[in-house]
Prior knowledge:
Layout lengths: L9 H9 L1 H11 L4 H29 L2
Amino acid sequence: MKDHKDHLSRFWFIVSNAIPPIGFFLYFRHRKAYPNKAKSALTSAMIGVPLAMLGGYIMNTFILD
Length: 65
């Protein structure tokens, strides 16, 4: 039977992508008990870091100029 608790919800995936420290926190919290959930949170956070940097660059260069 598939363990439904070992799946990161869509809400937490989006939150950890938008705010990467939350994704890192979720990774360290669930890494032993729920490895698939932890891996999804870490992947989302690692994608969110460059997106945040790119968004900050665009915001500072073009919008707040």
